[in-house]
Amino acid sequence: MKQLILTVILSMSILMGFGQSDSLSYYLHKGEEAASGRQMQPAYQYYKHAVAIDASNTEALKGLADAAYETRSYIVARETYKKFHELQPKDTFTISRLAELNFNTRQWQDAIDMARKAKMLGFGERFDWLIARSFFQMEQYGSAVEYIERAWKRDSSDAQMPFVAARAFIELSNYRRAAGCYEQALRLDPNNVQWMYEAAMTWSAIPDDARAIPWFEKAIAANHPRTIDFLTNMANSYFGNNQFEKGLPLVEELLQQNPQDLELLYLAGEGYLRAGRHQQAIDSWDKMLAIDKNQARAVYMIGIAYIKKGDDKKGQALCEKAITMDPALSRLRDKRSSFGL
């Protein structure tokens, strides 16, 4: 009796094994058939059933990964390619696809690892740009620049490369290199208005306002929005290059829209003062005090304006009053030369 039961169980196991084998072959065949006809959604389902039957079958894994990729199921594709890669670690197509998928799904370190494996196997030179962008996303800006330079030697036609390099150099506080990279990017993409503005801002941060101004002017000519930030920064560069008669109209334009903006009023006063229009400077800072009587810096600057007008006594008294209001302003006593005194 026991022998009979064992025989029955053994027979059932053998039949189930044959059944599973037949099912696996069926789903693999149907998956291949659907994929060859570019019916990727049915192919995905067939290969999914095949993997459920045998999770180590490389044909099933590869089919499922490819179908998932084609149907934009990128997370499934990535994880399935990983399983296939464990079984076929030197398959070049899978390594390339994993580098791409890891990058596109923000798995930066995994993207780098796959790209470096490709390089190790001798076919990964084209992945230098992917590695560079991954390092940039990981905020490893020095490494990003290193790989951008490698990628640039292979292809110097992609404007995104010097642009990302510029952003990396800004993070490294190397503004002169950043400005040069922006200009390189703009030679390849000369109509990119946002890059024009960023180039201008980078030159002004050096500071080199003489080289910033042309980029501000190109951006405004190319219809960059006349935002508060843009016009304020452009005016500051004009002031920094002693082009007050160009900078002041920009500040006045902004003040028409924001007449109680204290920073704009202060900037206007500074521009008028440096342009030698002392009474207009005083009027601008008086408007600040009408809004907020505790604006000690406005009181101090009015004092400077009176001194430059020749009324030293009144000017000195106002400067001392401002320092009483805000002792931190005493540091400006040592910077009189910046006001032409």
UniProtKB/TrEMBL annotation:
Coiled coil (residue ranges): none
Give the InterPro entries listed for this entry.
CellSynth/LPSAsmb/PSIAsmb, TPR-like_helical_dom_sf, TPR_rpt
- What keywords are annotated for this sequence in UniProt? Repeat, TPR repeat
Identify the stretches annotated as TPR repeats: 159-192, 262-295, 296-329
Q: Under what name is this protein listed?
A: Tetratricopeptide repeat protein
> From which source organism is this entry?
Flavihumibacter stibioxidans
